[in-house]
Amino acid sequence: MRVLPLGSTPIEAAAVRAMLLSALSFSLMGVCVKQVGARIPAAEVVLARALLSVALSWWLLRRADIDPWGRRRGLLIVRGAIGTLALLCVYVALAALPLASATVLQYLYPTFTALLAWLALGERIGRRVLAAMAVGWLGVLLVAQPALLLGGIGRAAPSLPLIPVLIALAGALCTALAYVSVRQLGRSEHPLVIVFYFPLVAVPLSLPLVALDPVMPTPVELLWLVGVGLFTQLGQVWLTRGLTALPAATATAISYAQVVFAGLWGWLIFQEGIDGWTLLGAALVLLATLLSLSGRSGAGGRSASPG
What pLDDT shows up at residue 217? Predict the structure, then answer.
């Protein structure tokens, strides 16, 4: 049977666009988190994001006349809890690390996602996607510049603080678990229902943490918090649409584009330097995205219907 290039059908083309728009939205979310992260605790950022997202998701569900409670409520709640933990880890890492470094550490999750999708969903990984993941992994390592990788090559690579790095890695693993659950839920739930449960669960989970260390945001910080909620909501909607129409490994390989966006915002807004290693890593990340777009082998499997 002839294998068509990824994006050759209207459904796949729409899913590819959704994943790229999701990457752009999440990169802008990172900018907003970075603006408030020095003073506002991560749990409070999560709560602000969740409150706005609950309202937006409810409005979208009512507008589309969709039952908001879904069918597999237990798995929806588990997905929301795992997603909340991932979001906390991501926000802590974004506040403590350079934007590009925090983003590339988060982007270790495609490898976790592919392995979990293989174990939990039986998705076989095609050679093209496997190559894209390998290239993307190398790009992530180069952008992050770990000392063990670049020691003795050119100038010494800067070391990142251990605790934020470990938190970022935990966020990557939780993100992979959340994305695989989205893939599973996409077989029975509407994408808007999946998006709705994320903040619905995040509100009660983050409230106790906020009560332990409340900080009153300034008017400017409130605007940035609204930006966090808005861009995260947009990113979640696009991400869910992409994940429910593409194999998990393919979709996450495409979303590597967020690393490129993060490097650009870090340079333009936060004056974070971009050296040759960062540029080379970003080029490899972009190549991984192009490889994932150019096609997939027959082993890649079919996309599951979200219906």
Answer: 93
For 135-192, how does the pLDDT look when each residue is reduced to its tens digit (9 = 90+)? 877 877 777 665 545 554 545 456 667 788 889 889 988 988 888 888 788 888 988 8
**pTM flag (> 0.85):** no
CA-based nearest residue to 88, from 192, 178, 14 = 178
Residue with tokens 């990172």: 30
Q: Answer for the pair 137, 253: CB distance below 8 angstroms, yes or no.
A: no
Angle between helices 127-144 and 99-106 (to 10 degrees): 150
Report which of 25, 21, 34, 17 is spatially closest to residue 267, judged by C-alpha positions.
34
Chain Cα centroid distance, residue 224: 19
Calculate the alpha carbon distances from 56 to 6, 49, 109, 123, 271 in Å: 32, 11, 27, 33, 33
101 neighbors 282 (Cβ within 8 angstroms): no
- pLDDT the model gives residue 193: 92
Residue 254, CA distances (Å) to 19, 143, 164, 211, 303 in order: 7, 17, 26, 38, 15
Instruction: Give the number of other Cβ atoms within 10 Å of residue 156's Cβ.
Output: 11
For 148: left if phi > 0, alpha if psi spans -120 to 50, otherwise beta; the answer is alpha
126 DSSP 8-state letter: P
CB atoms within 10 A of CB 151: 9
CA–CA gap between residue 294 and residue 224 (Å, rounded): 37
Q: Are 238 and 1 in contact (CB under 8 A)?
A: no
